[in-house]
């Protein structure tokens, strides 16, 4: 029998390093003698170039320049109907579909006709065509729009296997009415199965700071974005005053522009930008540091894979939930409310405890990887559950 064709959907090929890390981890687990991956995303050429697997276009974004509310609504509906029709075409060519994390059911940028609709289209096509659909190790937040919550419930109905990266996500799934969520599996984030860097001698004076091109929650919030940039600039000044050398990293291509703006404003050779775009590159930079400040969720994961104590200034409770799930100190503060002086003190404290905390982090990451290993038998079985395959 030929290898099963497995579609992997997510926000891939758009320059988000964390999303690409998630896909990389998933592809690494697929036995290529049993499964042939097909990436499903908006930018298939970029995804294929990065991961070396064939990719299919699900649909283009529902943006429109039509004037008038009715004309705009009609344009969006036509766009989404075309995507739904293409979802049936794509799913019909596959043996299974995996919805691989990447924030599709999270609050940040959660327009109902964006990723929630994409996921609903694939899950609906899978249910009707008899293809197994897996919701794998996803993060979930309570979506603010009623229509988005409707699509989330449809995703749950269409999925034959569902797992979450933390209890927080499963509780949010239940709160949105995703049927039988309490029976679903809680595992961890797929990225914890990525290879870990070799130990190196750490630089006690080095702090890695993950920055973000932050635009506020729910795709608005200019004042919040300006406050974040100003607070990070102040924090970098405090770290320099304490004799620290700072390396800035991003979690997305757009973040590197923000990092460049910060270094230009500070004009200090003790604050530089690392051109790190892959999980291995990010982990290698962080492995040398005494402590990391993370903003994006997967920057936090890369820091923990590197065994480096980390403070999170995240934009959602998923950061705190992940630290709690791993049994690590909940060193998390909100991105729109953090005090630069307080964060500088936290970084100094964690750097002083680096050997002790690294041992705890290494143990927690090993346990997370073991949970992913145990889950994979069930995942492989679910992928092969297409009933009409001969």
Principal-axis shape equals: globular
Chain-averaged pLDDT: 92
CATH architecture of the largest domain: 3-Layer(aba) Sandwich
* Topology, number of strands: 12
Task: Write the H/E string, N to C.
Answer: EHEHEHEHEHEHEEHEHEHEHEHHH
End-to-end distance: 9 Å
Structural class: alpha/beta
Q: Could you please say which CATH topology of the largest domain applies here?
A: Rossmann fold
Q: So what's the CATH class of the largest domain?
A: Alpha Beta
CATH fourth-tier homologous superfamily of the largest domain = Glycogen Phosphorylase B
Low-pLDDT runs: none
Major sheet attributes: 7 strands, parallel
Helical proportion, percent range:
40-55%
How many separate helices? 13
Tally of separate domains:
2
Q: How do the strands of the widest beta sheet line up side by side?
A: 3-2-1-4-5-6-7
**What's the alpha carbon Rg, rounded to whole Å?**
21 Å
Strand coverage percent? 15-25%
Keywords: Transferase
Organism: Gryllotalpicola daejeonensis
Protein name: Polysaccharide pyruvyl transferase family protein
Domain Polysaccharide pyruvyl transferase: 16-315
């Amino acid at each position: 029998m030929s290898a099963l064709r497995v579609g992997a959907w997510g926000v891939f090929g758009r320059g988000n390093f964390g999303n690409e890390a998630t896909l990389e981890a998933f592809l690494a687990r697929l036995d290529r003698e049993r499964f042939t991956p097909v990436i499903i995303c908006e930018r298939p050429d970029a995804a294929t170039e990065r991961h070396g697997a064939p990719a299919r276009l699900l649909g283009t974004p529902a943006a429109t320049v039509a004037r008038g509310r009715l004309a705009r609504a009609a344009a969006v509906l036509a766009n989404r109907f075309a995507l739904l029709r293409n979802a049936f075409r794509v799913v019909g060519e596959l043996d299974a579909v995996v919805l691989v994390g990447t924030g599709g059911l999270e609050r940040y940028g959660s327009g109902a006709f964006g990723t929630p609709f994409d996921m609903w289209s694939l899950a609906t096509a899978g249910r009707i065509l008899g293809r197994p659909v897996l919701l794998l190790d996803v993060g979930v937040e309570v979506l603010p729009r009623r229509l988005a919550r409707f699509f989330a419930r449809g995703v749950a109905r269409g999925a034959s296997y569902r797992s979450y990266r933390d209890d927080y996500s499963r509780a949010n799934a239940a709160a949105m009415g995703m049927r039988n969520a309490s029976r679903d599996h809680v595992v961890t984030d797929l990225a914890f199965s990525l290879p870990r860097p070799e130990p190196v001698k750490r630089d006690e004076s080095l702090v890695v700071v993950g920055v973000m091109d932050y635009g506020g929650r729910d795709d608005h919030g200019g004042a919040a974005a300006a406050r974040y940039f100003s607070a990070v600039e102040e924090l970098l000044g405090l770290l320099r005053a304490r004799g620290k050398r700072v390396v800035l990293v991003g979690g997305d291509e757009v973040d590197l522009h923000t990092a460049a703006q910060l270094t230009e404003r500070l004009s200090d050779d003790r604050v530089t930008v690392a051109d790190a775009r892959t999980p291995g590159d990010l982990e290698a930079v962080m492995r040398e540091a005494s402590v990391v400040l993370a903003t994006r969720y997967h920057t936090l994961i890369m820091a923990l894979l590197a065994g480096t104590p980390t403070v999170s200034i995240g934009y959602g409770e998923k950061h705190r939930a992940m630290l709690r799930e791993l049994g690590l100190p909940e060193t998390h503060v909100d991105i729109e409310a953090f005090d630069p002086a307080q964060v500088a003190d936290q970084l100094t404290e964690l750097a002083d405890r680096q050997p002790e905390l690294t041992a705890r982090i290494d143990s927690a990451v090993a346990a997370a990887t073991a949970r992913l290993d145990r889950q994979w038998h069930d995942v492989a079985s679910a992928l092969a559950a297409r009933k009409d395959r001969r």
